[in-house]
Structures are given as structure tokens and as C-alpha cells.
Design brief:
Rossmann fold; alpha/beta; 8-stranded mixed β-sheet; binds NADP nicotinamide-adenine-dinucleotide phosphate; globular; 18% strand; 7 helices; two-stranded antiparallel ribbon
Length: 211
């Protein structure tokens, strides 16, 4: 697939690299083609291409949004026209002071993203664990794959994202519509508090067992 990345720091870079190595055509939507983060990604994987945000998004089927939450509006505004009909994988989390929900639990960050680009199909994914799990998420001591919970309103978009999640080595777990994003954002806060504050391993992930 043709995949663009808006934001390619801790989260975007390993996902972009991994997806390119799986055979996808990955392009950075770069405000500045010579930025430090662009250089870091190209050092990691020279097969990733770089384009203007408008060109990268226009040519993409799927767009990963991996920016600091507070810049989402600015980042999306410049490519709103090109995002019509596109799948956005919202990797962003609104995190407030003291590791609280950044929108005071009133609205999910993904609902805000969807409101900013109503013609796009937003799927929230890759948010409930730290970036340390995105380059290599193999857990060889277990015979199940780690679960990646995701949600969104468009069934086809979720199907596409589920395929990417699966290709990346996760068990895709569809938790429902975009109204579930608020709850995923609380899962994130729980993981962040467990790991960044209470000392659990950053390689702690969840498994989904069903019978
Ligand atoms: N860190 C984690 O473990 C983790 C895990 C899951 C989800 N998240 C969420 O993922 C998102 C990204 O986190 P991160 O740790 O990857 O951040 P990061 O390392 O700071 O990377 C942020 C990226 O966003 C870009 N950016 C900044 N302002 C922008 C703007 N106005 N327009 C377009 N792009 C802009 C930066 O561009 P430049 O290259 O130009 O600097 C950079 O590539 C956050 O919302 C975070 O909550 C984080």
C-alpha cells in the first residue's frame, strides 16, 4: 500500500521503517525535508521517500498521524483537502498535566481528529503501548501474538488497518466504533503510569485470550 506519515519521531519512525520493510511504499509528509527527524528516518531506512505534506498525503491510501497531540490541528489543516476519503491511523494521545486525559475525559482525541477532517476515515491504533514496541514486537516466549486494540467507525478502513496491524506482527483486536477511543486513551494513561512512573517494563503488552 501507499502509506504517508505525518510525524515520524519516536512512534512514526519505527512504524514507517517496519512497514517499508514489509513491502509498503512509505513516504514522509515532510514540512522540512532536511530536518533532523527526516535524516534519522533515512539513516534507518533509505528506501523511505520524502515529499511535501500535500504530495505525500495526496498519493497515499493510508496516512499515519504520529504528531504531538497539540499540533494535530495545525498538521491536519495544511493537508485537509488531500485527506478526503483517506484512512487516517490516529496514533496520537491527548495527555494532560499529571498524566491525566488531555481533554478532561469530555471528548476523545480521535473524535477531535475526526472533527478536524470529517471527510477522512479515522481509525485509532498504535496508541496503547510505548514506542519501544514498534520496531520489534516479537514475544518469542509466548505462542500468542501481542494484541493491538483499535477502533473506528468505517468497517472497510478498519479492515485495512487490521491487515497492517497483523502484518506488523500484532493480533488485531477491533474494540468497536470511534466512541471507544476515549477508553483506549485511558488504557494508554494506565500503561504510561505503570511503565513510566511505576517501573514496569516498557515491553509490557497485553494479550487477548478468548474461548
Ligand atoms: N512516545 C510514545 O511512546 C508514544 C506511544 C504511542 C503513541 N504516542 C503518541 O504519538 C504521538 C507522537 O509521539 P512521539 O513520541 O513520536 O513524538 P515525537 O518523537 O516528538 O515526534 C513528533 C513528530 O511530529 C512532527 N511534528 C511536530 N509538529 C508538527 C506540525 N506542526 N506539523 C507536522 N508535524 C509535526 C515532528 O516533526 P519534526 O520531524 O519536524 O520535528 C516529529 O516528526 C503523540 O501524540 C503521542 O502521544 C506516543
Amino acid at each position: 500500500m501507499k502509506i504517508a506519515f505525518i510525524g515520524y519521531g519516536n512512534v512514526g519512525a519505527p512504524l514507517a521503517d517496519h512497514l517499508q520493510r514489509l513491502g509498503h511504499t512509505v513516504t514522509l509528509a515532510a514540512k522540512e525535508s532536511g530536518s533532523e527527524n527526516v535524516k534519522k528516518v533515512l539513516a534507518l531506512n533509505a528506501a523511505i521517500t520524502v515529499a511535501s505534506p500535500q504530495d505525500a498525503v495526496r498519493n497515499a491510501e493510508v496516512v499515519f498521524l504520529a504528531t504531538p497531540f497539540q499540533v494535530n490541528e495545525e498538521a491536519l489543516k495544511s493537508v485537509a483537502a488531500q485527506l478526503t476519503g483517506k484512512i487516517i491511523v490516529d496514533c496520537t494521545n491527548p495527555v494532560g498535566a499529571g498524566l491525566t486525559h488531555g481533554l478532561n475525559n469530555v471528548q476523545s482525541g480521535s473524535a477531535m481528529v475526526q472533527n478536524l477532517v470529517p471527510e477522512a476515515k479515522v481509525v485509532k491504533a498504535f496508541t496503547i503501548y510505548g514506542f519501544e514496541n514498534f520496531q520489534d514486537n516479537s514475544y518469542p516466549a509466548y505462542n500468542i501474538k501481542p494484541a493491538m486494540l483499535f477502533c473506528g467507525n468505517d468497517a472497510d478502513a478498519k479492515g485495512t488497518v487490521a491487515t497492517l496491524i497483523s502484518q506488523l506482527g500484532w493480533e488485531p483486536l477491533d474494540v468497536g466504533g470511534l466512541d471507544q477511543a476515549l477508553h483506549l486513551e485511558h488504557m494508554t494513561l494506565m500503561w504510561v503510569r505503570m511503565v513510566r512512573v511505576n517501573g514496569h517494563s516498557p515491553h509490557l503488552v497485553w494479550g487477548a485470550l478468548q474461548r
